[in-house]
Amino acid sequence: MGIACVAFIGPQNNPMYLRSIDPASDDLYMKLHYVIHCSLDAVEEKVMLKRGPGDSQDAYLGLLYPTEDYKVYGYLTNTHIKIILLLDDEGPVKDEAVMRVFRRLHGLYVDTASNPFHKFGLPLSSPRFDGAVDGIVAIYRGAGASQGGFMT
Amino acid sequence: MAGLPPVPSPGVVGKKPARRCAEVCLELLCAESVRLFHDKQSGPAAAAALEAVGYRVGQQLAERYTRDKPRLGDTLEIIKFVCKDFWQALFKKQVDNLKTNHRGVYVLQDNGFRWLQRLSPPGPGADPGREEAARQLALSYLHLPAGIVRGALCHLGVTCTVEADPKQMPSCTFTIRIMA
């Protein structure tokens, strides 16, 4: 229950970070890669749709599309970084809680990018980053989407 | 004064005041970086190196300053963001004048560019030689901010070149040319 997978995709649709929260086999990783890849089209569609006047030009894109096992949520930053979350919640999911997770992940990415040794475009591979992602995911699971109670 | 820590208000108990840094540190760092690069390398190479440093910083600042902003749509919105919020965060003021020829060239004019404030302009009636020397010196200080602007724009999706021109110190213009 909760977040199954976190992915960061760069501006050229290059995968920068893909992490399955539960330990995953190679097959499962292939499946996750595939789902995330398909979700990139959905991100572009949503952005096109939202171009209409009066639509909120927000970073949070909401539910992109449901697959049989997961619900795929998307977030697009101004610097064209896409953050994709795969949730395997069965019950109703509160948008608020997912939005908070995205904001925290975005903040984490901004802090990581501010590192002088960070190289843009290359995959993110740092144990500290992994640990921080774990922390954010744990809060989502702990607080519970139904309660939706933690500070951004 | 920018350097003194703010006194915590009596109602807030046990909360550490936010750490601040004196602005003169940034000015000294900029001046020293210009000197360092120009000592190690000759003119154009030093300029390119400073611009590259600025480019990287610009990318990182673009990530940080667009964090909670609504989505920026087309090129004009991105340029306006650079003129207002980005300039405000970086140089404590907004760009004074924005001109465009609607064909991919934008000219940003700042009438009191903060990073040139410490350079004394040549006095009125100075001979052209001195004016040219002063202009060249000011130009060497502008490679870094030009790089920052270019890095921010490219990271936001606008591929371009940025050229700085110190017209009347401390006022200067930045010309952005969008590459198709």
TrEMBL record, chain A:
Gene3D superfamilies the UniProt entry points to: 3.30.450.70
GO terms for cellular component: cytoplasm
InterPro entries for the chain: Longin-like_dom_sf (IPR011012), Sedlin (IPR006722), TRAPPC2L (IPR044760)
SUPFAM superfamilies hit by this protein: SNARE-like
Top-level taxonomic group: Eukaryota
UniProt cross-references to PANTHER family, sorted A to Z: TRAFFICKING PROTEIN PARTICLE COMPLEX SUBUNIT 2
Family to which this protein belongs: Belongs to the TRAPP small subunits family. Sedlin subfamily.
Protein name listed in UniProt: Trafficking protein particle complex subunit 2-like protein
Lineage per the UniProt record: Eukaryota, Viridiplantae, Chlorophyta, core chlorophytes, Chlorophyceae
From TrEMBL, chain B:
Swiss-Prot/TrEMBL GO biological process terms: endoplasmic reticulum to Golgi vesicle-mediated transport
Superkingdom: Eukaryota
Family matches, as CDD domains: TRAPPC6A_Trs33
One cellular component term from this protein's GO annotations in UniProt: trans-Golgi network
InterPro entries: NO_sig/Golgi_transp_ligand-bd (IPR024096), TRAPP_component (IPR007194), TRAPPC6/Trs33 (IPR037992)
SUPFAM superfamilies, sorted: Ligand-binding domain in the NO signalling and Golgi transport
Family: Belongs to the TRAPP small subunits family. BET3 subfamily.
The protein's name: Trafficking protein particle complex subunit 6B
